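Protocol step 4 of 6: structure prediction from sequence.
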Amino acid sequence: MAALATPPPRTGLVVVQALRKKHCAECRGGPVGLLMLAEGAPRCLDCADLGHLVFLPRGDTALTRRAREESSLSAVVVRFNRRKSRYERQGVLVEEAALARAEERCLGDAEVRRRRRARDARRRAVEDVRFTDAFATEIRRLFPACPAERAREIAAHASLRGSGRVGRSAAGRALSEFAVTSAVIASIRHVDTPYDQFLMSGLGRYEARRRIAGVVEARLREWRATG
């Protein structure tokens, strides 16, 4: 029987979700998907006295925490990730009655949590509007001749939450001149030049940028003009 890699030490009991099902070294039953390692040998959950527990997959933090609080016996379930060469948590084993009690507790405050999420969403929306306004204002300061509506469009695109665009970077949040100018250049590149068409035709990114560089620079000079 092939040996299993020993998972890293954790607080409490650890159960391994085997990549390939193994047979129990004690009762010879199996193959089993969940097992414990005792003295380097796999044991099925029944032989490890954990057979009465139920599996709760990861994903709901509140439910997992409460289920473990309610359960007098629990175990963390891990699985080896070959690509990352490490064990990763998959969920927990808890008593069935404890899971039921935890679910009742979560249902009891579901409305409270829903309202909290709604408040947080409203707060983030207000913050996003303020930040987009500040970004657009900074665009107009650096590029006074940029049309106000265009500045707003550039700011909204660059500062979209979760987009990973320059406006959400640390420099973007600080409204650095580099970040704001980068957002303006990106907009000019995609809106005012045939850059996208060059890419679609198979032209390399650097060559496409070289071909439109003059148009971009001309538009930047135009928008920097103070009248």
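Step 5 (inspection) to follow. Residues 110-142 form the longest helix (33 residues).
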